[in-house]
Amino acid sequence: MQQDIDDRIRQRAHQIWEEEGRPDGKSDEHWARATAEVTAAIEAEAAPKPKRAPRRTKKTDEATAEGGEATPAKTTRKRTPKAAADSDASTEAAPKKRATRRKKTEET
């Protein structure tokens, strides 16, 4: 495990050295920077991902009614008669074009 980390640090330090134009005398600086980057990457990989709340389904609501953990049921909205009529009308036929009004011009 440690050997893998050292290899990653060595490769990253070499990459930094090449990116900076292969300067002389900066090996300690490159090594320190590579160590910090690789360590941060390893910690990010090892960090536990936050758990999401489970999705609510009809089955989970039924299970809670049988004696499981009680959670409030999600309410659904009902369609109003006007909204239902509008959606039904839009699927049956294309809307009619509105007639445009022409402006009256004054004749002198």
From TrEMBL:
Leader peptide range in chain numbering: none
A Pfam family matched in the record: DUF2934
Record field: compositional bias (Basic and acidic residues): 1-32
Superkingdom: Bacteria
Bias kind Basic residues: ranges: 49-58, 96-108
Annotated region (Disordered), positions in chain: 1-108
Composition-biased stretches (Low complexity): 33-47, 65-74, 82-93
Segments forming a coiled coil: none
Protein name (database record): DUF2934 domain-containing protein
Species of provenance: Rhodospira trueperi
